[in-house]
Design brief:
two-stranded antiparallel sheet; 84 residues; alpha+beta
């Protein structure tokens, strides 16, 4: 609470996000981090397999990350229909 007001609330726009220690650091690094990443990968694969016609929202173009060391998008809005 001294770094993040209302720490139990999920907020991706929270200030000071680089100060988080999601999996810890150094000798206190989480031994379950590899399992958590694998679970997330499987969850996204399952989710994406259930969505048909995934396209980029034409009304909201992608916003790239401006960086010399990273590539990707800061925002990528998608449209889809759920498969039956």
């Amino acid at each position: 609470p001294h770094i993040y007001p209302d720490p139990e609330r999920f907020d991706v726009h929270r200030a000071h996000l680089k100060q988080q220690l999601g999996f810890g650091h150094g000798p206190h690094y989480c031994v379950g981090s590899h399992l958590a990443r694998e679970e997330a990968r499987i969850a996204f694969e399952r989710l994406l397999a259930r969505l048909d016609d995934i396209t980029v929202d034409p009304d909201r173009p992608p916003v790239p990350i401006i960086s010399l060391s990273l590539s990707g998008y800061r925002e990528l809005h998608l449209q889809f229909t759920a498969s039956s």
